[in-house]
Design goal:
The longest helix is centred in the first third of the chain and has 23 residues. α1 crosses α7, α5 packs antiparallel against α6 and α6 crosses α10. The protein contains ten helices and no strands. About 70% of the residues lie in helices and about 0% in strands. It is mainly α and about 170 residues long. The protein starts with 8 loop residues before the first helix and ends in a 7-residue tail after the last helix.
Length: about 170
């Protein structure tokens, strides 16, 4: 491999890390997390196992970086920002649509998660805690605040059903 100049090194490292994460996801989608060795991920990325360890100290670190890279959180946060001030029905409908589009765009990671998380309860719990951070709780508060603006006789379940009903039109 040719030497990388000091000014180009940060970009090179980020590109290499992204390439490794993509390779890991491809292999895990085929063979599962437990069924894949670090050597197989390295081979898929076109690297030696030792070189992969320069970028990620463990298979667990590789998994955590992959989950962060393919997180739905940025999509959901951007969707919430666009929906700020909208009626609750629009917020719920919009969040469902954003989430659905995000899941569709991340089919490989969703398949890996659905297959692997039941076998790894500690990692599943950590993943869910990561998703439900302080910002996520603030987003729930926004939805709840919008719910309080509805007439008391109108139950949240009714609003949710009405909002989610036509969601297929948005996807």
């Amino acid at each position: 491999m040719a030497r990388v100049s000091a000014s180009a090194r940060p970009a090179f490292v980020e590109e290499r890390r992204a390439s490794i994460l993509d390779a890991a996801l491809r292999v895990w989608a085929r063979h599962g997390f437990d069924g894949t060795s670090v050597a197989e991920v390295a081979r898929e990325a076109g690297l030696t196992k030792g070189t992969l360890y320069l970028y990620f100290p463990s298979k667990q670190a590789l998994l955590e970086a992959t989950l962060r890279r393919h997180s739905l959180r940025p999509d959901v946060e951007a969707g919430l920002e666009r929906l700020r001030g909208q009626p609750l029905a629009n917020v719920v409908r919009g969040l469902v649509a954003v989430t659905w589009r995000g899941l569709e765009a991340r089919r490989e990671i969703v398949a890996v998660l659905l297959r692997e998380l039941p076998n790894h309860p500690a990692e599943a719990r950590r993943f869910l805690e990561h998703v439900r951070d302080a910002r996520g709780l603030a987003n729930v508060e926004v939805v709840q605040a919008r719910a309080e603006a509805f007439k008391p006789a109108e139950r949240f379940e009714t609003v949710l059903a009405r909002a989610v009903g036509p969601v297929a039109d948005l996807v």
